[in-house]
Amino acid sequence: MSRTYIYAVQSVQTGYYIISTEGDVAGQNVATADGNGGLPAGTFLNFNKVLADNTTDVTIKGASGLYVALPEVFSFTPSSSTLSNLGYKQNATSGSKLVWSNDAANWQVDNTSGVYEIFPEGQDLYWMTDKATGPTVEVKKGSEVIEKENKWTITRIDREERASA
Fold first, then answer.
1. 47 pairs with which residues across the strands?
2. Does the model's pTM come out above 0.85?
3. Does residue 24 have a pLDDT over 60?
């Protein structure tokens, strides 16, 4: 049995929460909902670790058991031996939308003065808020902050769930 810790993740800039439902499917874009009037349904996400004051690498799971992840991005190159195109997987690019995945992704969560920045582990990207399309990732610009778009309030909910390993 492994523990998960329940958090609500809200954009500082827009007030929108990342939401999850039991109907989420792999490859579907992660959605957000307006939280300015209170907690919308589906705001509770399961983190595999308690967030510490320092950087924490976590996985984030939704209600359907799927994980928040970067999309698989394929680049297609014509094959010299066939007429078909062969695709190969690349890292997500700036502007990619977060998706639900069967595979756990590791996220670096930095606490900066009570708000958080979330980065895909090993990539030069950061989470951005976009209430129209759901959260995206953008190229990280060192310590430069683009207004509050990459700032998140992450609130622990006072219950724990146990999940099988």
1. 5, 60
2. no
3. yes
